[in-house]
Amino acid sequence: MLNIDSFLESVAYLPPAPPNLSRLVELLNQSDLDVGEVVELIQYDPALTAQVIRLCNSASFGARAPVSDLSEATARLGFRETIHLVTALSTAALMRSQQKGYGIEAGELWKHSVAAALVGKLVAEERQDNASLVFTACMLHDLGKVVLSRRLETKYQEVLAESQRSQSPMLVVERNLLGFDHAEVGGRLLERWRFPPELVVAVQFHHDPAQAPAHGRLAAYACLANLVACFMGYGCGHQALALSGRALALELVGVTGEDIPRWMTRAFDAMRDTQSLLNFSF
Amino acid sequence: MVPTSIVCEHRLVVGLAELAVSNNPSAILTAYTLGSCLGVVIYDPVARVGGLLHAMLPDSRLDPAKAAAYPGMFVDTGLRALLEGACQMQADKRRLKLYATGGARIMDEDEIFNIGGGNCAALAEFIRQENLRLAAQQLGGHTNRTVYFSIGTGLVKLKVAGLPNEIVLC
Lengths: 282, 170
Hints:
heterodimer; A: 282 residues; Hypothetical protein af1432; 2 domains; 0% strand; globular; B: 170 residues; alpha+beta; five-stranded mixed sheet
């Protein structure tokens, strides 16, 4: 069985960071946010520019006179909403493909990530935390699956048999078969992309935030958002709900289990809005 | 060879917090990836009237305004609307069969996160109150299920995410 370092060395092609995302992440912790920097970032990408203008003109943003100019669209949407939209769209190419090793159909992993990101954002806004940072951590939490899927694809029958035999969370099935799991791989990939340590830790410990050496609160957001997305049916792949409950994650974020149904009704609204924008079926 | 008859299936997706009732024999109602949500089929095989609910949470008292806008969001209001809708299309309550799936749960010994269990309990309570019959079920577990229901044949099929074959529930 390989260790994680040997595995990462053996992978012929590790995906590079989406270029827009790297630059957005640099902006996340800035207190003096400049809309001009976001416009600068988007304007050289025609597809992103079109999506942002489309979003701005959509009914869910209460479109008045339609805009055709990126600066005006960004101003009307607001800096934060623009950042969230661009973050989600920047990961689409990476996450939209089928992940056969997990039994995930095309589009499902991305939809799951968007749902988790919206849940995380809603809760972070309520708790007055950095909603953009939480949105990004939740958007990226399952990134490691993109890398591990191919390795598991050749072992898919073993994955099914092992999950049946052990009746364990899928994370444990991965460890039993490979020696490591998608959360660790996702964290390592973000490290290679030179993303900030809080995002690396949040992704690495999103299944067990209590073990995080620091930034446990951000990891707890990713943990809860992942669970809530799965409850709503936005989980994906084989045994999607074979996940451990983490009561401590609730404590770290400062909420209770009784809050979860309320988040689900709010996330329902957010997903309805997002569905029309991002062109996926609900 | 020229086909002697062509059957056009009328496929209808019942999205999250939605429900649909139909007496169109070519209708196939589908609720995708239920997670902890419930997919409940109601069917009168004589009147050939049936419906499908895709409910997210057990109890409408959480948010009465949401329940008014989306009765299918909650098990209690959703089942009530499903039952009334079927009866308005001449289904006979005494002949109604129910089939239920979804209600998956995570591995949570403390039951703090048990949304699926709450949905199943709300279903059981409604069935008891209304003296209905649950003909078949596949509830709980940790899998995501998709349910397909044919009004014409009464066939209820399930697809479990990550597994190749469909399961016939009835």
